[in-house]
Structure to design on (197 residues):
């Protein structure tokens, strides 16, 4: 699959607006500011694909991107956890994303993006727990790995990957850096596996 073929397909404000549930897709999730947009942009070699550093509190949307070579899609889920997000917006997020995650038949995997300096926040842990319960393949991207020295980055990866593997074999982690374009091929290979299996 050529990830640089990604093209914007449509946005959905609620579950009923999602494109038809055929083929296969992988969704990207993560705390706001974790580096999710940047990771999607480097993967697709399109600096404008997912908008980076979005305004807190703006309308939350699921964004769908189509890939060539088959009925494949990438999905950008709204970032989670801005301090400014009020309770109602938080509930909206949980309702819409919860429904998407629960109902979507074509969803074959989730990439959960974490800032390597702040991994496994409360929200992250809930997403991991959900993947364990639903047997959803999940790849944790420890991004901004360029912010740590090689040794500490490797240690964080080993610790988190071991924790995940002991929870369920369909969970795994990897290092990633959008700045240095590191981990892009490894991510592509994981995505290929989920989308085409
Ligand atoms: P999102 O809210 O999760 O989509 O996060 P963004 O992709 O907008 O990134 C948040 C901030 O982190 C931006 O200032 C990015 O430039 C920065 N950033 C993202 N990825 C990396 C990375 O791999 N390395 C470094 N050094 N900075 C990054």
């Amino acid at each position: 699959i050529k990830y640089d073929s990604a093209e914007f397909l449509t946005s959905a404000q609620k579950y009923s607006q999602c494109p038809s549930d055929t083929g296969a897709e992988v969704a990207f999730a993560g705390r706001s500011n974790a580096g999710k947009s940047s990771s999607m942009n480097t993967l697709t070699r399109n600096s404008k694909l997912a908008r980076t550093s979005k305004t807190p509190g703006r309308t939350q949307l699921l964004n769908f991107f189509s890939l060539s070579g088959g009925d494949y899609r990438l999905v950008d889920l709204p970032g989670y956890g801005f301090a400014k997000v009020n309770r109602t917006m938080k509930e909206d997020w949980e309702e819409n994303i919860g429904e998407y995650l629960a109902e979507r038949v074509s969803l074959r995997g989730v990439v959960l993006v974490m800032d390597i300096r702040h991994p496994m926040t409360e929200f992250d842990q809930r997403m991991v727990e959900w993947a364990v319960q639903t047997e959803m393949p999940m790849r944790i991207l420890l991004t901004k790995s360029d912010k740590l020295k090689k040794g500490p980055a490797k240690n964080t990866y080993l610790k988190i990957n071991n924790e995940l593997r002991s929870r369920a074999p369909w969970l795994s982690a990897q290092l990633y850096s959008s700045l240095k374009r590191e981990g892009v091929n490894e991510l592509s290979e994981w995505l290929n596996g989920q989308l085409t299996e």
